[in-house]
Structures are given as C-alpha cells and as structure tokens.
Design a protein that fits this description.
25 helices; alpha/beta; seven-stranded antiparallel sheet; globular; disordered N terminus
C-alpha cells in the first residue's frame, strides 16, 4: 500500500529524479499538506537509476493555515505508456493523521506539461521533461480555493480517462471528487477508498493538475502565430517586412506593425483559396484568397518546422468548401479571441469542451459571428440554456445535447431561421410555447430527457415530420394525440417504459408510416387504426397479441416477444421483410403464404411443427430462417423457386426433400445441423449439376460415408461442415471434385484417414478434423493457401512432411495425439508457424497426473472464426494457492486483443493479493475486478473487455471442509454449472438488452443509446473492464455469486458471448456429458457454435469436477508402475531425491547461460500474451505425498509437505512465477545430457539449430506469505539434493533453471513455495497465438506452442551454445570451490550465501522493487557446503 513505509525502493523502470530538502509543520484536519517535487527527467527503460531520497530538516508553519509540508518523497516514474508510477513513503505522523479519519486522504497534483508519448523501444534512452508533482494531504471538505490559497496557485484542473481537462470551481472539493469517482466505480469500504486514492495507477483514470496542461498539438490546431518576414502581393512593389502573422479559424491575419496588434489588421480569408510553396525562397509559403479580387501574402518562415506546421494547417483550411471551424474536444473554456476576425465562419463546432458564458471568448460573444448558421455546443456541461445563442438570428442548426439542461428559455422563439434543434440527453420535461413559432423547424430531437407525454407544442410545428422521443418516460400513448399531429410520419418511442397504446376512438391515424416501440413493456398491441403503417419495430416487449393493418405494411420486426399469433388485415401484399424469431408461434398464419412480395422470413426459436408448402414454394421468398423449432419434415418443392438461403438447424428432420437442390437452383446457403438426417438429397437428376450451393452445414446428424458421393455435384462449394456424424471414411475420388473448397470441418467422426485427394482442393485454407481416429497426417501441406490445420485428439503417430511448408500456414494443432513422435527435423520445419500446438510428453508415474492430484481438471478451446485476429483469452489454474483451490477465467475483447491479454496475465495475481486482505467473497472478487480495471492503465481508457472469473475454494470458516465456487463477471461472458445433468447459470449477462435494471441505470445517467442498443454506439455492455471513457455509463463492478459444490456437480462451462448465442445452456450440458475429455468437449462446443452460424471469436473452458459426498479432497491411492516412454534425462532440479524420498524433476530444454530481462513496460503491454495456467511438466521418477483433507486427516506425518521447505518443489502442479515479455534464443543441442546414450527430452531440438521462443515474462507484484521455519529434515533434504544416484546431474548453485512450458524460472530453496503462489507463473510452453493469447495446457498433454517469430532485439535473449565448450563448463576444483562460491555471491544479488531462511515480511509491508536478475553460469559442479537460498524477490507489474 502507498500508505506504508518502504524499506527498499529500487526502480524497476529507469528513473532520474532530482530531489531537494523540504520543511514541514503540523497538518490540520481541514487543511492541506503539500509535498513539492521538482522537475523530473524520465529515461528509457533498461537504464536503472535509483530515485533520490529527500531528507527532513526543521519545521515551518504556513502563515495562513499552519500546514506542515511533508519531507521529500521518493517518486518513481514509469515511462511506459505515459503513466507515472510513484511509491510514496509517509512518515509516522502523516500515516497516523490519515488513519485517524477516512475523510482524509492525499491528492497528487501534476504540473502543466502533458506527458509525452511512450518512448520507442530500443537501446537509446530518450529524456523528456515531465510534469511537476505535488503530493497534497487534505480532507474531503478542503476546497479548491483553500488549496490554491495555500500554494499560491491560480486554480486546479481535473482530467478523466486521459481525455478532456476541466477547470474546477473554487467551491469544489478535489478529494471528495476523487472519493466519489471511486465509489461510482464500485468501491464501498471507506478505508479501501482512501488507499486506492493514493494509488499511482489511478492517474490513468482521474488526474488533477495544478495548472492547465500545455498541449502543443492542440495549440497548433487552434491558433498559430509568430513574427515572420511578410510581403504583400505577387509583384515586387511591396518589400519584405517583419510582421506578426496569425492563422486562426478560416483567416490569415497580418498585423500592420511589427510585434504590435494595436494597428490595422489585414484579414485574408483562406476558404477556397490556395497555399503554395515558393520554390525561389527557402521555407516560404504563398497564401491567396478566393474570388476575382484575390489577395496574396508571402510569408517566409525561420525554420523548417514552422514552415511544415503552417503549411499543414493552412492546407486544411483552403480545402474546405464551407467556412467551418472545428474546435471540438479541446477542453476549451473560451474560443481564441483571434477567431472573431474570421467573420466568414458559417459552421462552428465546439462539442466536448467546457465553454463558459463570460470572458472575451465566452458564449456571450458568439453573436459577433454575423454569418454563423450552425453551432454545436453539445457535451459542454452548461447546466443552463445559454440565452445568448438566441441572439444569433442567422442560426439554422443548433445542437445543445448532453448539457444538463432543465428548461428552454422563451427567447428560443427569436431563432426564426432555425431548422434543426437537438436537445437530446438533458433533463427537460417541457417545451415553451414560443417554440411553436419556429415555422421552419423540421427536425427536433429531445430523446433521453424526462418527458412523460408528447409535448403539445408539436401540434404547431407543422414542418417537423419525426418525433424523436426515445429514452423518455412516456408510459401511455394515445393514438388520437398522434392523429392531431398530422405532420408526424416517423415516431420513435423506444426505451420509454411504454405500457399502453390506446385508441379510444375509431379515428384513423393516416399520416404515420414508421413506428418504433422497441424495448418497452407492452403486453398487447393493436395498431389497426394506423392504416398507412409501413415499418414497425416492436422487439423486446412482452407482446402476446399483435394486430396490424396490412394495406401498406412493408417491414415487421417483432422478435423476442411472447407472440402466439399475428393478426394482419388485409393481407400485406407489400410485405417484404418479417422477423418473428424468439416467440411462441406454433403455426404460421395463413396470410403469410398469401404475401406476394415476401423475401425474408425469420421464425427461428419458435414452436413450429411444419412449414406450409405454399410458403416454401413462394416465387418471392429468398431467405427462410426456421431453425430451433420442432419441424419433422420439409414440404417438397413443386417448381423452381428463387430461394437463396435456408436455415433449418435444430429441428427433428430425418430427411430433406428429394428435389431440394435441383428445384432451388439459386440456393447458396443451407444449414441443417443438429437434426437426424441419415442422407442428403442428390444435387441433380442427371450427371450434370447446376447447383450454386456455396455453404453447407451438416454438423450433428447421422450421416455416413455414403453422403460423400452426393456432395460431388456441388462444385461451387466453399464451406463444408460435416462434423459429429458417423463418417468412417470420405471417398477420395469425390473429395477431389470439390476444387473450390476453402473450409472443411470433419471433426467428431470416425475417420482413420483423410484422402490424399484433398491436395486437389487448391483453395483450401482451413482443415479442422479433431476428435477422429486419424493415424496418418493428410497431404495438405502442399496446398498454397492453407492457413489453419487442426488434427488434435486423434491417433497420429508420425508426420511425413515435404521439403518446405507453405508460408501461409499460421496455426497447426497436434495436441491430444498421445503416440505422436516428432523428429527434430520436423520441428525445424515447423519453425515459421505462428501457432504450433504440441503435447509435451510426460514421464511421470502412471496414474500420477493432474487429475489425480486435484478433484478437477480442465480443457479449453479458442477459435478465431472468420476474424483475422483472436480477441478471446483464458486463464486456467488447476492448483491455486496453498490449498486445494483453482481459478479459471475467460476474457472477450470483442474487437481488441490487448485488454484480454493483459487481464489474462494479471487477474490471477490480483486475486491472490485480494485474498490476503479479505475472505468475504463479494469483497475480494469485487476488488479483484476493480483493481484489474485500474491496472489496465492507458489501454483501458478506450478499450475494454468482458471478463469472467471462477474461484473454487474452501469456505474461510472451514479451510479443509466443503468446497464452494465463487463466480464474478462483467459483460457477456457466462458460466454454467452442470448439477444432476441440468444447467445452473452462475453469471449475469450485463448487456442492455438482457438486463432491465442496467438499462434504467444507464438511461438515468443520460447516456445516448443508439438503435442497436449500444452505449454511445460503442458497446452493448453496461459493465466492462476498461472503456473507462464511457464512465459512469459503463462500470467495472462485477456481479458476484457463490455456489456451494456438491457431489452432484459434474462440470463447469465457461464461454463468451458468441458461444452461448449459438449453443443453449441445455445443449452445452448435453454436449459435454457425451465427451469424457474436457479439452475435446471444449473443442466440440466451439465447433458446434461455428456450424450453427457463428462467424466471430469463440472461447470455451470446460472444468470437470470430481467432488466427493462431503467435498473430500483426499487424493485417491496412486498405483505404482513402470514409467511410460524413454527413461528420463538428468536435468537441473530443485530437489534431488534421496533414498527414501524421490522428488519430481523439473525439465529444462538446454542449459540456460544468460538471464537478461531488460524489457520495457511498454513491451509488457504489447507482448503480454501468456495464459496463466498452472501446469508444468515433470520428468523423472516422481512421488508425491498423499493429499489429505481436514475431514480425513492422514494417520502418519510421513511425506507431508512442510510449507516453506525445499520439498515443495516436488509438486508438479503448483504454479510457478512466469517470466514476461522477453525473448530468448537457445541452441538445443545441449539438452542437459552428459552422454549420447541418454535419451533427449521430448519436444526439444538437439541438432544444433537455433530455436527462438517468444514468451511473456510478466512480473507481478504479489505479497509473500509467511512460511514456517525449515525443519532439520528439510535442511537435510537440501543437503542430500546433490546426491543424484547416477552422479551425472550438474547443479547450478541449487538454482532451479526451468524452461518448463516456455517460461524461464530462476528460484531457489523455499522461495519456490512463494513463487508458486502466483498464477502468472502458471504455465505454457512456448509460442503465443497470432494475437498473443496462449493455450492453457493440461497435465496429461501439456501444449508446447513453439514461437519462432521473436523480434531480433539485443536485450531479452537467452543464449545457449550449440556445443558445450570448455569455457562454458565451469569446473571448480574442490579446494577452490568455497572461494568461487563467495565470489559468485558477491556478483549476483539474487544469490544468498546463507541457508538460514530469510524473514518473510508481513502482509502489510509494501512491495519491494529490485533490479533485473543477473545472468547465471551455464553449469556448476557442486561440492560440499550449504545450499544457497534466494533472497525473497517481489516484482512489480509494469502495465
């Protein structure tokens, strides 16, 4: 915490802070205490500097308030991404003062220099002057006026989310603003709010400035001025003279007197004119106005920078067709005074500023623009309607949206030329009668206000044809009211809470043609009196009946209701588009078949048992969507029909019409997945086929290999999904005919091979054939466009490869092929593949797998679909913390990949930290999400992601008793628990369409919700991590739910929005129940979603649960047998097994000779992409103490792991600290073997070629947990650690160097126990996916994703020699060993020479920061002596 003392404050990111000596005095309850920090220079990351530490001398009392100025602080600057990170050390007095009252706190004031852009990564350091920092201790009652008086300042400013900067009023209270902001985010504990307010990461969310920041780029776009050499006219009559020149608005202004603005000003309008380069003079521009009497000025600039700046800005002005000035989003309080010289301005945009009434450039002076026609003042926090704009009589367009307006003045009647008036997003409840005199007003917007009825003044506005009243409070609509307003044609009343639409008279409403009643509370709707209605939107109501007039009806949208029938009279012969999905229709009305122009009909998710023959044989129907019904047959086609798309998935069809394909010759899309088809109809009646079918989805039927012959006629087929059928083979001769095939999915069948004729499909780019019995790798690597090949969960034994692979191949998945043996030549050939997924071979004792050590195991799958990047990431930790716990998560960034990757790498560590502060589920889960939101930094300002986190744990009151599952989520990711074969939803979908209370909350905060139900047109979610610029509409506070687990709980499913939009909860449960392997089940879920029509990213995690009756977590007895596979190779280990206590060995792909993690924090943000998963593989004979729960304690203490002892390294599942964001290159010829007769490690290249692996080495700040002192037995175990039976093991000063799952870990002794507590150390061997997301491997088949596209950076490489040279083998004679050890201790700050356990700091001690770990020697021959133990290291996350 920032409130606590720091004993060690070493910069993780290089800083160079100038410090001084300050004086102090007492701090008053209502006063402010200011800590000044001089200018600071930030250097490039990688050049370690230590922040200077100030001293405290003397006392001084402020003349007015008696404030004590704090002693000098250590302030760290983090140059990454423009953020400032500081560690503040408070003295005891200040700390006690803060703890005395939660209404006290600290505010960090920044100076007036805008933070620079993130420095480019590279070896050179760049220095940029940054802001002046002042730390102010104050209370929530301290006003801006008091703070400014104490520091002799002019004012304070606040900036939210790195966006606009607003001047605070003198009466505003900065600390209260900060506390209110945190409370809106979701913090409820006052103490936690006080702590969070002092956190450095908060500056990316809310930041205070002591003066208005200077932004050079903004100044350039609003005003350019300087003294330059000027000449008037194209002739030589005028001489060059030094003059003041100004470019503002649409004009060039030249003063008549040098350095003086008192004389005559020459105005040159530039709109439509020219700006040209004068080649005869250096840095000279010619400015010319438009028209027959054009004037010309030549301006000679002093520097190239000035020349380019003026040329760029002037070119924008002259290219305009209208005199428009755009000053939006500049945090302006007034327009530049020079702008009033541009009297030709007709369009002025001041949106998203903080315009004030007073001042030379205030709103009161806007009437000076004599030709102004359009004025945009939206989002200016005006509070009151600016009456001064009513004096601009030339206005035709006025926008005052989102200004907290409560009334409209009567002076609005002066604007007789006004045609467009926008008042959306305010607090208006009435309109003045004077508004009715605006005869030219044709567009009036007052959506998202507080109107309870339609204003009567609209009856007089005869030119207005659209009623825009979405998001108001109109609960009842009288159709007779609309009848009186005969000019209104388009009515928008969505999101009003509308309950009744009444028609008390028989009077027809003939003028209304379009009516939008979406997202209301209507249970019945009779609009038969609106006789000319053309388009009706009434989705997401509770309609049971719907009655309409069909005279002119063209489009009907009535999905997501409770309709059992729709009454339309007369028959709507103009109807072309009808959407009735997600209703309760058991049959289609007869009038539907009589519609002559119907083109699209959507009746999915109803209760239909048949489709009328007349409808299917319609001569106008082109698209029929009838999936998710109860159809048992499809009527025959009697004649040729124009049908182009037919969706019949999720029905009970046993067959399709025989004439389907040769009667529907225009059919291009057919989806009949999830039916009971045993065959498909032929493509034609003769050998020659005229089929134009391009997409065919047959997944989830009972088709056999005979259907292959029937597919031949569809020679235009591009996409074929025939997964999860009964195919034993696929006819080779038939497959060769599908030459245009691009995507082929054959998963979940019983195929033993894929025909070699697949090589004839030259356009094939995706082949998915997982979950079969394929033994031979198909001949697909010769295809020129192949991108993705998924052959996981098969029975492959070997791969025959060509000499070279296509450059287009991006992803190859070979996991789940237990018998697959890859040669080193094959691995080298795979070197260019972006994502290579392989099983890491395990040599543990049979039965000693992860599923045996924990009562759960998991599998997961990610598919990018038809998107070119993967924006879904997962977190999987089967062993989380000290006890039998687990953590799983899924993150969906929709269109961005950065935020999901950052959450994937940090959220597990944040949960670890929060669990140390609270054991209340709602508290620690909520704080985990809020802290993760803050840690996103600048990435979270504009980008966001849905997040779901599941934590399996014991109840705090009974640590060894019953298990519970705590789920928290924001956004649209969901979790479903299978209990007794039934789905139990555990999450809450935070989308505006699905959550009524969230919709109401967003409306009350005056957000603009677009017609597609997105907040400001950005996201449909009301709660996300990130997207902080949408606060307070979009919040990071999660839904939290805890469910006790029992023996009836079979498995847990986590999925993103795309998965559960296509696969229902019940189907997902049935799907997983039918598949034993969790990974295969997750893959099946994603495959089904794709076959059901999903084109988006899909992610699924399946966690298989094995909970006993009493939640017992005891480990079942493990049978000992011979290890499978070749004998293990001796490798560096943490603990060497003794005679009676064999321990697990950590595998390492080569001896690592260098450890260099000089990586910038910005690289963490851009390269972070590792799934935090806890599995890492072990090699060698291993035995683990039997796990016992508190319900069934062990009868003997033999083999019990002592916390803090070295034997914790024997746990194969405990997660390890995962290095982040560095790249290492290792020659794999040296596999840690001392002789050629030893078997090499599986999956490791040993032919001397270079293998570069790009992994995420992200260091997380976590608190060390206190461990008990080491027992003599534990110390004896360490001493016996060097006595490996065959004597060939080379210990590296007892340092574990583990490349397990692609991570480099350098720890020692009992430090491993603390490192393993961090989820970010969990897992993964290797290569990131194309978007940086990484597959979380399982213990039985850990995934090796070999990354070979590491950037060739000088820093961040680990290099191992191709051949073991004598220089690399440090052979130490026994007589000199002790001296060498002492020298090594002196050179390496990470190695401690004492074997005594170091004292673990308390949980409340601040996090320590240490420099980068040094390089390690290649190998050392151990000798007698104590085993060194690492000093306890804590790393800080630089995100």
């Amino acid at each position: 915490m920032a409130m606590e003392d720091e004993d060690n404050n070493t910069a993780v990111v290089a800083t160079n802070t100038q410090t001084g000596i300050k004086k102090g005095g007492d701090v008053g309850d209502n006063g402010a205490c200011i800590d000044r920090q001089p200018d600071t220079v930030v250097h490039q990351a990688g050049l370690n500097r230590t922040a200077g530490r100030g001293s405290r001398s003397g006392t001084g009392v402020h003349a007015a308030t008696g404030i004590r100025v704090l002693k000098q602080r250590n302030i760290k600057r983090n140059g990454s991404r423009g953020c400032v990170t500081r560690k503040t050390r408070f003295g005891s007095r200040e700390r006690d003062w803060l703890k005395g009252d939660t209404q006290r706190g600290c505010v960090c004031l920044y100076g007036g220099t805008v933070d620079p852009q993130p420095a480019p990564s590279g070896p050179q350091a760049s220095s940029t002057p940054q802001t002046d920092l002042q730390l102010v201790l104050c209370s929530t009652s301290t006003t801006v006026e008091e703070l400014c008086a104490q520091r002799d300042g002019q004012g304070l400013y606040v900036q939210l989310h790195g966006d606009l900067i607003r001047r605070l009023d003198p009466s505003e209270r900065p600390l209260q603003i900060l506390y209110d902001y945190l409370a809106v985010m979701g913090y409820t504990d006052p103490v936690r709010v006080q702590q969070e307010a002092a956190n450095s990461d908060l500056s990316c969310l809310i930041r205070f400035y002591s003066e208005h920041p200077v932004n050079a780029d903004q100044q350039e776009r609003t005003l350019l001025k300087g003294v330059f050499s000027v000449r008037k006219g194209k002739t030589q009559l005028h001489k060059w003279a030094e003059r003041q020149v100004i470019l503002c608005g649409t004009c060039l202004i030249v003063a008549s007197v040098k350095d003086s603005l008192t004389g005559k000003m020459h105005i040159l309008p530039l709109v439509g004119g020219k700006v040209e380069e004068v080649k005869r003079r250096q840095h000279c521009l010619m400015f010319s106005s438009a028209g027959s009497q054009a004037q010309t000025y030549f301006v000679n600039f002093d520097t190239l920078a000035d020349y380019q700046r003026w040329h760029r800005q002037a070119s924008k002005v002259v290219s305009q067709t209208v005199s428009m000035v755009d000053l939006s989003c500049y945090s302006l309080e007034a327009v530049p005074e020079y702008l009033f010289y541009s009297q030709d301005i007709t369009h002025l945009n001041l949106r998203h500023n903080f315009m004030s009434q007073q001042g030379p450039g205030g709103l009161l002076n806007l009437p000076r623009f004599s030709q102004l026609k359009s004025l945009n003042l939206s989002h200016n926090r005006l509070g009151v309607f600016p009456e001064c704009v009513c004096e601009i009589l030339t206005l035709t367009e006025l926008n005052l949206s989102c200004n907290n307006l409560h009334t409209v003045p009567v002076q609005i009647g002066n604007l007789q030329s006004l045609q467009t008036l926008s008042l959306d997003g305010n607090h208006l409840s009435s309109l003045p009668e004077e508004l009715g005199s605006l005869s030219q007003l044709n567009s009036l917007g007052f959506s998202f206000n507080n109107f309870t009825h339609i204003p009567a003044v609209l009856e007089r506005l005869s030119a207005v044809d659209k009623l825009a009243m979405a998001g108001n409070r109109v609960e009842s609509l009288e159709l007779c009211t609309l009848a009186r307003m005969s000019h209104l044609k388009n009515i928008d009343l969505r999101l009003n809470g509308l309950r009744w639409v009444k028609s008390e008279s028989l009077e027809a409403v003939s003028q209304v043609t379009q009516l939008d009643l979406r997202d209301n509370c209507l249970d019945s709707l009779d609009l038969s009196c609106i006789c000319n209605l053309e388009t009706l939107h009434c989705q997401r109501n509770q309609l049971g009946t719907l009655t309409l007039s069909g005279f002119t009806l063209r489009m009907l949208h009535a999905s997501s209701n409770c309709l059992t029938t729709v009454n339309i009279y007369p028959v709507p012969n103009q109807l072309t588009h009808m959407e009735l999905s997600q209703n309760l229709l058991e049959y289609l009305p007869d009038w539907v078949c009589d519609c002559r122009k119907i083109e699209m009909l959507d009746v999915t998710h109803n209760l239909l048992s048949e489709i009328p023959s007349r409808l299917l044989n319609s001569l106008s129907l082109r698209k029929l969507l009838a999936g998710n019904n109860r159809l048992q047959r499809v009527p025959d086609l009697l004649d040729h029909v124009p049908l182009e798309a037919l969706d019949l998935q999720h029905n009970k069809l046993a067959e399709l019409p025989e004439s389907l394909f040769y009667k529907a010759l225009n059919l291009k899309y057919l989806n009949v997945s999830a039916n009971a088809l045993e065959t498909i109809p032929p493509s034609s009646q003769s050998e020659e086929s005229l089929s134009t079918l391009q997409e065919l989805y047959l997944t989830g039927n009972n088709l056999n290999e005979n259907c292959g012959a029937l597919l031949v006629g569809h020679q235009n087929l591009r996409i074929l999904h025939i997964a999860y059928n009964q195919l034993l083979s696929f006819p080779a001769s038939k497959l060769s005919k599908l030459e245009l095939l691009e995507e082929l999915n054959l998963s979940g069948n019983k195929l033993k091979t894929i025909p070699s004729t697949v090589s004839s499909c030259k356009r094939l780019h995706t082949l998915i054939a997982h979950s079969n019995h394929i033994t031979v790798f198909p001949e697909i690597l010769n295809l020129p466009e192949i991108k993705l090949v998924d052959l996981s969960c098969n029975e492959l034994t070997e791969i025959q490869l060509p000499d070279s692979l296509p450059a287009t191949l991006q992803e190859l998945d070979l996991t789940g092929n237990s018998s697959l043996m890859l040669e080193h030549k094959t691995l080298n050939l795979f070197s260019h593949i972006t994502t290579l997924k392989l099983d890491q071979k395990s040599t543990t004792i049979a039965g000693d797998s992860l599923s045996a050590s924990t009562p759960w195991n998991h599998g997961y799958s990610e598919m990018s679909g038809q998107r070119n990047k993967l924006c879904v990431s997962v977190l999987t930790v089967d062993q989380f913390g000290d006890n039998v716990e687990a953590c799983y998560g899924i993150f969906d960034g929709d269109r961005n990949e950065e935020v999901p990757r950052l959450l994937q790498c940090t959220m597990g560590d944040v949960l670890c930290e929060e669990l140390q502060h609270s054991n209340v589920d709602n508290v620690y889960m909520c704080n985990t999400f809020l802290t993760s939101h803050r840690k996103l930094g600048m990435a979270g300002q504009k980008l966001g992601a849905s997040a779901l986190l599941c934590y399996i744990h014991h109840e705090p009151s009974d640590p060894g008793g019953y298990l519970s599952l705590t789920v928290a989520n924001v956004g649209t990711c969901q979790a479903v628990l299978c209990r007794n074969g039934r789905p139990v939803p555990l999450s809450k979908v935070y989308s505006l369409e699905n959550c009524t209370e969230e919709m109401e909350r967003v409306k009350l905060s005056k957000a603009i919700i677009t017609e597609d139900n997105k907040v400001s047109g950005v996201t449909c979610c009301s709660r996300l991590l990130g997207c902080s610029y949408l606060s307070p509409w979009v919040l990071p506070k999660p839904w939290v739910h805890t469910e006790p687990l029992c023996s009836q709980d079979e498995f847990l499913i986590l999925g993103n929005r795309a998965l559960f939009e296509r696969v229902s909860y019940q189907e997902a449960v049935f799907t997983v129940q039918a598949v034993q392997d969790p990974r295969a089940a997750a893959k099946k879920l994603c495959t089904l979603a794709q076959s059901y029509g999903c084109k988006d990213n899909i992610g699924a995690v399946v966690v298989s649960l094995h909970i006993a009756e009493d939640s017992c977590t005891c480990e079942p007895p493990v049978s000992t047998s011979e290890p499978r596979g070749p004998p293990p190779a001796p490798v560096p280990v943490s603990v060497t097994p003794g005679p009676s206590d064999p321990a697990t060995l950590s595998s390492s792909s080569g001896i690592v000779s260098e450890f260099n993690s000089e990586t910038s924090a910005s690289e963490v943000g851009s390269e972070a992409g590792s799934t935090a998963s806890d599995e890492h593989q072990s090699s060698g004979l291993a035995s683990r103490p039997e796990r016992r729960c508190s319900l069934h304690p062990a009868t003997t203490l033999c083999g019990i792991m002592v916390p803090g002892s070295a034997s914790v390294g024997a746990h194969p599942g405990l997660f390890q600290r995962q290095p982040s964001c560095a790249t290492f290159s290792s020659n794999q010829s040296d596999n840690g073997l001392d002789s050629d007769d030893e078997a090499p490690l599986e999956g490791v290249i040993s032919n001397g070629s270079k293998l570069e692996v790009e992994v995420d080495i992200h260091c997380c700040a976590f608190q060390l947990r206190s461990g008990g002192p080491e027992s003599p037995k534990d110390l004896d175990l360490e001493k016996r650690g060097s006595d490996y039976p065959n004597g060939k093991l080379r210990r590296q000063n007892s340092v574990v160097v583990s490349a397990t799952n692609g991570c480099l870990l350098a720890v020692c002794g009992r430090e491993i126990a603390d490192l393993k507590k961090s989820p970010s150390t969990s897992s993964l061997f290797g290569k990131k996916l194309c978007n940086g997301s990484v597959v979380a491997p399982e213990d039985s088949h850990n995934l090796i994703e070999v990354a070979l596209e590491a950037p060739k950076k000088k820093s961040g490489y680990f290099t191992a020699p191709a051949q073991p040279d004598p220089e690399d083998q440090l052979i130490v004679p026994p007589s000199l060993e002790q001296e060498v050890r002492e020298q090594l201790r002196g050179q390496s700050p990470l190695i401690s020479g004492s074997s005594a356990p170091s004292t673990t700091p308390s949980l409340k001690d601040p996090v320590w920061d240490h420099p980068h770990p040094p390089a390690f020697a290649s190998s050392l021959v151990p000798g007698p002596g104590p085993v060194p133990i690492l000093q306890q290291e804590v790393y800080d996350t630089a995100l």
